[in-house]
Amino acid sequence: MSFIDALLSGNTQRERRQKTMCAIAIAITAALLVIAVIVFAVCQIAGISTNTDSEKDTDKESTPKVELGETVERQLSPEAVYSGNLLTLNSTARYKGEVETVNLQERKDRPKTDTGENSYTVLKADRTRFYATEETAAALNKMLQAFYNAKKDDNILISGAYDTTAITSQDAVFSSGEAIALSYFHDYATNGINDKRSIAKVDTYNWIYANAHKYGFVAVSAGSNIFRYIGVTHATAMKTRGLSLDNYLKQLKNSTPDIPMTLNANGTYVAYYCPVSNVQVPKNYAYEISGNNVDGVIVTVNLSKAVNNTFVGETTVEE
After folding, report:
1. pLDDT in tens, 40-73
2. Predicted pLDDT of residue 255
3. Which tens digits make up the pLDDT trace of 276-287?
């Protein structure tokens, strides 16, 4: 006899009715227990969700709050799109501005070895002359001086840069005068063969990849030996975020004055994109502008440096 049969059996109709009522009570109690378990589980899940949301809110609160303050419109010449360190450069976006450069071979501030020799070599061919902007060349010399001091290696070779003899045919990345290709003479010391090779994935030159951002340089892509100067603030932000140069520039393009991109941990530097037809700049903070070489500019703001911009209340045109 099953449990249910035993429970419902009885000698009289009254006994059977009492046992039936008992069975119903047990069933209801069991159902209520099941419902209680379900409610408890739902509450637990809701609690986890609430905690997660709370954590997200905490994360938001821990993110530096950007107080850009009042902005005003500043009109720029259309040529401003092609000036600055944050240009998009590729096969479809060659540099369209005018390049003002200096000859890398003739720089007076080239770093020296302990014996007074140049600590790096500039590739020199019959018609090839490598150039860079003044800002890029100065930063390059500082970086390679620090590299020599750290590694005592004078085998670096500038194997690519802005070439005045091949302006239209050279790689677009060199077209703004801010990119430098770094190689080294493989086996030159032992047999004099000028076998130049990329510094990428060579232990001695890992120092450059690890420290380039301190001098404003970033590798243009993973594993590349071409370094481009974009300034210390942006180079450091790019390295901290672990982004490629292409993705970093895309993130800048997607930032706005209302939701700027925070560049450093304490939020004192922020940046955002504006179309050249409507450039919004802060009224009370120092800022810099770089064109993106396509359709607008990137405004980089130093929120720790309060200034009284002279054009406040006026719309000015920057030539």
Report:
1. 665 555 554 444 443 333 333 345 667 788 899 9
2. 96
3. 999 999 999 999
Helices (H), 99-215: 134-151, 188-191, 206-211
Q: Tell me what pLDDT residue 28 has.
A: 75
- Taking alpha carbons only, the member of 219, 150, 207 closest to residue 179 is 219
188: amino acid identity, one letter: Y
305: nearest Cα among 280, 273, 270: 270
What Cα–Cα distance (Å) separates residue 272 from each residue in 75, 143, 231, 310? 16, 28, 16, 21
Tokens 């409610």 belong to 39
In the 8-state DSSP scheme, what is residue 65?
Answer: P
The end-to-end CA distance of the chain, in Å, is 101
**Amino acid identity for residue 148 in this structure:** Y
Per-residue buried b or exposed e for 194-229, using 16+ beta carbons within 10 Å of the residue's own CB: eebebbbeeeebebbbeebbebbbbbbeeebbbbbb
Q: Give the number of other Cβ atoms within 10 Å of residue 191's Cβ.
A: 7
Instruction: State the amino acid at position 243 in one-letter form.
Output: L
Q: Give ∠ CA 73-77-82 in degrees, rounded to 5.
A: 110
Most confident of 14-18, 104-108, 145-149, 305-309: 145-149
Output the pLDDT for position 25: 67
